[in-house]
Amino acid sequence: MSNSNMPKLKQILQRLYNKYNHRSFIGSDPLQFVYHYSRRADMEIAALLASCLAYGRVGQIENSLNDLLGRIEKSPLEFVKNFDSRKRARLKTFRHRFNSGDDISDLLAILKIVFAQYGSIETFFAAGYEATDKNVAPGLANFSKALMGIYAQKFGKKAGRGLKYLLPDAANLSVCKRLNLFLRWMVRNDNVDAGLWKSVSKSKLIVPVDTHMGRLCRVLGLYQRKTMSLAAAVEITENFAKIAPDDPVKYDFALSRIGIRQNCTGSHSRACADCELIRYCKKSGRKYGDRIPEKNTKTFKRP
């Protein structure tokens, strides 16, 4: 998208933000589970778990998190601090698509050590984050690497596929949608995002890009790459930074409501007439019933 079109896009995005960026709209978002708690440490743990499992259908995610947090009881922090074989057994039958209860237990066993040594996930993350970095990508890579290092030291072996899916490695060019989502919740502070962390600047965040967000950003002309990767997410973020340099992830929640509340699937329908982004679909010459082209869509399924 040319710089000349940015002012018009900013107006549209700001209208979306004003319309959707309210706590009343988080009922269909895994972020809702963070606000089940009031203590900072409980919210941090709930946020990491909710973001790690934020893949699949909306209803499926909600059911899985209700199940998981129900097993964890009232305080995620107390569950983590006292995590043992009995608590692992309590999670044994949990399942969310590609991840088992054992994967969650492995993550909680790691977090037990993190909280014992650092006191919070923020302090642990900050140990591998440099404020001078261009964005949070190096910090994310160090975060996953350090967590996997704790696992290897505790269990004497490398992590399995399930834990690696929960904690993808930014150094391997994974799009890291779910970990970027976790950071958005923790760093940004507005009517939606919790803003618990103060050690990371919101200007360094990367847009959490999944299939839907990738589709919308392609329609908006915010990236040109043929495959979705962390580099594509960074390109998208840099284009958003032309609109909101101090807060490039500002419009993420509002844009994602188009898919959830307006049921955008990439095909035109009568519902498109009320969509704030319809002018961009019309500009490309598409008609009702046409599909928005998506090349290499399998790459959107990266964790």
Describe the structure.
The protein has 303 residues and is an all-alpha fold. The chain has one domain. It contains 14 helices and 2 strands. Strands 1-2 form a two-stranded antiparallel ribbon. Residues 284-303 have low confidence and may be disordered.
Tell me what portion of residues adopts beta-strand conformation: under 5%
What would you call the structural class?
A: mainly alpha
Q: Domain count, please report it.
A: 1
Order of helices and strands: HHHHHEEHHHHHHHHH
- Radius of gyration computed on alpha carbons: 19 Å
Q: Level of helix content?
A: 40-55%
Tell the overall outline: globular
Largest sheet: 2 strands, antiparallel
Please, what is the oligomeric state?
Answer: single chain
Number of strands: 2
Average pLDDT, rounded to a whole number, is 88
Spatial strand arrangement across the major sheet: 1-2
Which spans of ≥5 residues are poorly predicted at pLDDT below 50? 284-303
Label this structure with key terms.
single chain, 303 residues, two-stranded antiparallel ribbon
Short description:
Helices cover 50% and strands 1% of the residues. It is mostly helical. The chain has one domain (3-301).
SSE blueprint and pairings:
Blueprint: H1 6-20, H2 40-52, H3 58-72, H4 76-81, H5 85-91, E1 95-96, E2 99-100, H6 101-118, H7 121-126, H8 137-155, H9 161-166, H10 177-187, H11 211-219, H12 230-241, H13 252-261, H14 278-283
Helix pairs in contact: 1-13, 2-10, 6-8
